[in-house]
Amino acid sequence: MMNVLAYSGYPPASYADGGGALAIWYGLSAIAKVEGIDLTVAFPMREEDSCDSEGVHNGVKVRGIRSPKELADCLREARPDIFHCMRSESLEALKSCRSLGIPSIYEVRSPKCFPCKWQHKLVPPYHRQWKEMLAGRKDRLAARQADVVIVPSETAIGNLRRNYGIPEERSLYFYNGVDYENFYPLEEKPDNEVPILINAGRLARDRHFDLLLKAFQLIQREFPLAQLRIVGDGPERARLEQICVDKSIDGVRFFGVVSHSELADLYRTSDILMNSSESESFGNVVAEAMACGLPVVCFKAGSLQELVIDPMNGILCEIGDDETLASNAMTLIRNPEMRKTMGLEAARSCRERFSWDLRAAGIVELYGKLSSGGNIF
């Protein structure tokens, strides 16, 4: 039996919120199901939290930690075979791993780029970007302490090497999976009376939903009754809604945050995922839409070039080119058979390539290599 201590950075209650926290939980719970693995997941507790510090959450052993020092103490006490962590608060524990001889893995969701010194002076300390810079630097320090750093795509491996300075022999990628209990295609998809496009995600500037609205305006010139569903919330929502008012863009509906089952239903009853993100380390939105049988039109943004195989399951466009984004979406609107064929291939290729169980098997194999002192490749 191999004992593994993981630090998720999220309390169990936050997994219900979806997003990155839920993806981390899916990954850890899949690892816990592998035979021969005894996994305990440590999570941060606040002083006001009244829940028990130790217990079981959905079949996985969990343990609350109130400080980075307590995490390091827990590591010294438990002496696991592997320490697997996902947040930079584990920096002290990672340092302890080196002194204790415990192999360590640090998981980075999105390796951040760091600006040069003169750019720092242009960013006010109170700005959100400043906080992201500081978080990125802490992330890099933690990654450099680990024996191996893992990321969710081959594209992210390149970013990891450029931005974090992690050498090739210490980095690996494992694709995220998809919750196929919720995200699956309809056996017989009815035809919509009007074209329905959809995109989902956090409504933030780096997702470029304003470009999505520009592309949708172009689509409405030929298909005036077309609809656009925008799912999610964030700091850009009010501005995006105002753009729709100012430019008289009809047919756009903002759904806000919805459950996984509601999101899957919205995907299944739409025709095309039109995604405007210009930077992705994996692309959960694209993978989940593909699993529901949607063809994808998106930019050549990071790992989306790994998910979308043009022209088999979607169409790729040059980054920032809203006219081509609209043109390719209209090509699919005009050709229902092409749309259907791409959608079927999207669902098939997604199931074949993106599985939490497949990811868990690869990571458990990595555990074995690290614990035996072997080469990770």
Task: Describe the secondary structure blueprint for this structure.
Blueprint: E1 2-7, H1 19-32, E2 37-44, E3 54-57, E4 60-65, H2 68-78, E5 82-85, H3 91-100, E6 104-107, H4 117-120, H5 128-145, E7 148-151, H6 154-164, E8 171-173, E9 196-200, H7 209-222, E10 227-231, H8 237-246, E11 252-256, H9 260-268, E12 272-274, H10 284-291, E13 296-299, H11 304-307, E14 314-317, H12 322-334, H13 336-353, H14 356-371
Parallel strand pairs: 1-2, 1-5, 2-4, 5-6, 6-7, 7-8, 9-10, 9-12, 10-11, 12-13, 13-14
Antiparallel strand pairs: 3-4
Helix pairs in contact: 1-14, 2-3, 3-5, 7-12, 10-13
Description:
The strands form two sheets. Strands 3-4-2-1-5-6-7-8 form an eight-stranded mixed β-sheet, sandwiched between helices. A six-stranded parallel β-sheet has the order 11-10-9-12-13-14, with helices on both faces. It is of the alpha/beta class and 377 residues long. The chain is built from 14 helices and 14 strands. The chain is 42% helix and 17% strand. Strand 9, helix 7 (209-222) and strand 10 form a beta-alpha-beta unit. The chain folds into two domains: 2-177 and 355-371, 3-Layer(aba) Sandwich (Rossmann fold), CATH 3.40.50.2000; 196-353, Rossmann fold, CATH 3.40.50. GO terms for molecular function: glycosyltransferase activity. Residues 189-346 form the Glycosyl transferase family domain.
The CATH homologous superfamily name of the largest domain equals: Glycogen Phosphorylase B
CA-based gyration radius: 22 Å
Low-confidence stretches: 115-123
**Major β-sheet strand ordering:** 3-4-2-1-5-6-7-8
Tell me the number of structural domains.
Answer: 2
In the CATH scheme, the class of the largest domain would be Alpha Beta
Mean pLDDT across every amino acid position: 91
N-end to C-end Cα span:
23 Å
At CATH level 2, the architecture of the largest domain is 3-Layer(aba) Sandwich
Give the number of helices.
Answer: 14
Given the helix and strand composition, which structural class is it? alpha/beta
**CATH fold-type name of the largest domain:** Rossmann fold
Shape annotation: elongated
Keywords: Transferase
GO molecular function, one term: glycosyltransferase activity
Protein name: Glycosyltransferase involved in cell wall biosynthesis
Pfam families: Glyco_transf_4, Glycos_transf_1
